[in-house]
Amino acid sequence: MTTTGARALDGRGALLFSLAVLVVFAYAAYEMNTSFTTRSRLFGNVLIAPALLLALAQVVRELRRAQPLPVPEEAAFARPALAWAVAFFVSLWALGLAITITLFSVVYLRLAAGEAWPKAVAYGFVAWLFLELLFDRLLHVPLPGGVIPLPGVTN
């Protein structure tokens, strides 16, 4: 089924991708709840629980879908999207969560979205402030640092 300006997404591909996402979050939930202390689990479970439920809901949606969805050409998977995702996770591993969220939001908004520097920096600051206030100040959950030690910046 091809419509003007859109192509049909293979239903099996969407289902397989949804199942893969569900498996990744299920494994993350298992690891979080067997490998970390109770206090450390809080941060991961805050993120994993809703993601796991949403992934499960998506699998159910894909199983119930009668016809494949039309996907616009601009939504097709592209190499730059994969490159940004890889860059994010490498930065997360190397620099830690607080630095990555701040830095990545600024760089992505400026380079990929073409936003002006002041808007990108303001967004990065708000993202850092949200993490700092919610997890560090309110919940007292230390954010994970990266493998590169940054004294005074990461925990």
Question: What descriptive keywords fit this protein?
Answer:
single chain, 155 residues, mainly alpha, 2 domains, two-stranded antiparallel ribbon, 5 helices, 2 strands, 68% helix, globular
Task: Describe this entry's structure for a reader.
With 155 residues, the chain is mostly helical. The chain folds into two domains: 1-76; 77-155, no CATH class. The chain contains five helices and two strands, in the order βααβααα. It has helices at 11-35, 38-64, 79-95, 97-111, 117-138; strands at residues 6-8, 70-72. Strands 1-2 form a two-stranded antiparallel ribbon. The chain is globular. It starts with 5 loop residues before the first strand and ends in a 17-residue tail after the last helix. The mean pLDDT is 84.
List the helices and strands and how they pair.
Blueprint: E1 6-8, H1 11-35, H2 38-64, E2 70-72, H3 79-95, H4 97-111, H5 117-138
Antiparallel strand pairs: 1-2
Helix pairs in contact: 1-2, 3-4, 4-5
Distance between the termini: 52 Å
Strand content: under 5%
The assigned structural class equals mainly alpha
Number of domains: 2
The strand count comes to 2
Shape: globular
What is the C-alpha radius of gyration, as a whole number of Å? 19 Å
**Main beta sheet, described?**
2 strands, antiparallel
Give the % helix: 55-70%
Looking across the biggest beta sheet, what order are the strands in? Answer: 1-2
Which residue ranges are poorly predicted, with pLDDT under 50 across at least 5 consecutive positions?
A: none
The count of helical stretches stands at 5
Question: What sequence of helices (H) and strands (E) makes up the elements?
Answer: EHHEHHH
**Average pLDDT rating:** 84
